[in-house]
Amino acid sequence: MKKYILNKAEEIISQTEELEYESISVHDFLTEFDYATKYLPRFLKVRSFALYMLFFKRAYYSIGDRKIKLKISALGQNMLSNFGNPMSKDVVKRGINDLVKFGIVEKLHRPGKINEYIVKLPSEIKAIKKLIKIEDSIEESIYGDSEDDILTDSSKRNEILKRDNHKCFYCLCELKAPDFYLNHIHSKANGGYDWKSNLVSSCRTCNTVKNADSVNAILLSNLKKGLILNTEYLEQKSKLDKLKAEYQNVKENLGNIP
Q1: What distance in Å separates the CA atoms of residue 130 and residue 60, rounded to the nearest whole number?
Q2: pLDDT by residue (tens digit) across 52-97?
Q3: What's the pTM value of the predicted model, to 2 decimals?
Q4: Pick the CATH number of 2-128 from 3.20.10.10, 1.10.10.10, 2.60.40.420, 3.40.50.300
C-alpha cells in the first residue's frame, strides 16, 4: 500500500513544477512528513513535536538546507499557549532540549550569534527506523506492497492457495493453480481491501455462490448439504475468525483506516 500511495504522490508531483532543494526532493519531503506525523508523537511531547515540525518546515520546505538559523523568540511567536499567548523562551528552550536529547535536532554552539541547528530527518533516527522496518514487514508479509497486483500476481495468489492447503475454503475440494478464484471476506463493495488476510481460495461453484452470500453463510450451507463435516465446518470457522482478527489488526496498525 505504501508504494501505491507514493506512486500516486509521484504522479501528482510530476504534473507540477518540482522545487529542487539541496538536501531533499519533494517526493522525499512527503515521505518524511508522513514519518514525522505518524511516529514522532509516540516519542515527543506535544510542544516538542510542534517545535520539530516548525524546524522541519523551515529546513526542508522554506530554505532547503538541513542547517538553519533561528531565534528562540521567533519560535515562540509561532507557538501559542492554551491561552493564546506566545510561548515563553524557557518553554521553547525546554522543547528544543527534548529534540536535542532525542537526537532529531543538533544544536551548534555559536557564542554571541543567532542559534544554529542541524535538523535531521525522521528516517535518520534509530527508533523511527525500527518502526518503519516493522511496518514494511507487516505490509510485505500480510498483504504485500500493492493492493492492485495481489489478485493478478501468480506468486501472491499461490501464497494464499498454499495457506488454504490447496483447497476451496468453502467446500474443501482440491484446487490447483492457476484454476482457482480468490474471494473477499469483507467485500470490496463494503470497503474491504485486497489483503491476504481478507482473501480466501475458492472453486468455481463456490465463487459463484459467494457473490450473494457471506463466507460463513456458504460454510453453513455446505455443511447442511453434506459437502463438509461438522468438524470441518468448525475448523474452517476457526480459520475464518483468525483471518478476520488479523485483518482488523492490520487496519489498526495502519492507523485505523476506514
Answers
A1: 23
A2: 988 898 888 888 888 888 777 666 666 655 556 677 778 888 888 9
A3: 0.48
A4: 1.10.10.10
